[in-house]
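Sequence dictates fold. Below is an illustrative record:

_____
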Amino acid sequence: MEDANYSMEVPIIDVSENSTGLIFPPEIFVSRREDSPVWIKATNGVVSTVSLLSQAIVILIAKGLEGDYSAKTLMWVQAICETSKRLFNTILTFQNQILDGGNFYTLSDTSCKIMHMLSFMTMTAPDWMAVLVSLDRIIAVHKKGGVWYKQNCTKKAAFIPVFIAIFILFVIGAPRLLYFGIDEAAKRAKCAPKTSNVLIQNTRELISLPSILVMAVLTTILVVMLRRRMKGTNNRVNNDTAHVQRVLDNNAVSLALMVYCVLYCIFGIAQQTLLIMSNRGVTTSNLVRPLAHTLSAVGLGARAFSYLAIPTMRNALKNSVKNICSSK
């Protein structure tokens, strides 16, 4: 959901409403040289670092959970995708220092293509992995689908939808390898599109926005299904607190991932709203865009640490740490 290239110097093209008709203008081709205040950069850096480290917790929890079910695989795969996105953003942030004032996008025609492809994949993959997580829980919680889930949705089986999603994203982003390159006519080397096709120019935005909407719909369905399930159990046992607690323990993973999905939607919608406001010129972009990225990092950390509020997930973390220590 983030725009990793907002500080990149690239050619300015017509981004008026009549030129695209889209919510997002082709922002990665617009010069984003506005400098943000130091305190915003510092805050963004600290929050991003904490959120990046928080993904280690998610991976350890996924590894420490008992049982053979697909949610375990989807959890750590999604965490790795989020980590890749943060690391890619970090590399772009310090590319001037790494290359002594250079830019990875303008090293060569090939690097321009590769960097834009990496940008697309790292920015969109986490969103659609989160969609798979919510869909996985809906199937698991469903009364009839739950039986099929237990029989077929194993840790290894989870790689099937993961590979399908990654392949589809790669196919959608592949035109970047064909239509992006160094603008030889420019006075300075610039990584620019070699096509005026609006769909290619707005690929990432067209993929990111639907993921938020799909995630919101699936999360709403998941919340309703899980609530009905718990309410029905409560009614059957005549408010037997002990039994309800056992049911809560058995469904701890579903509850944890439901909270994860809700937080994802809240922070995701908030971030996209800020980005839309910035891209449409509603507010100052050099303040709002970093704020949007900081908000995204806060949401990522909040989702990870929310797992620790559930005993089953804390125990999984402890088991994973113990296994690592005992193996040494």
Notes: The chain has one domain: 45-321. The first helix runs from residue 17 to 20.
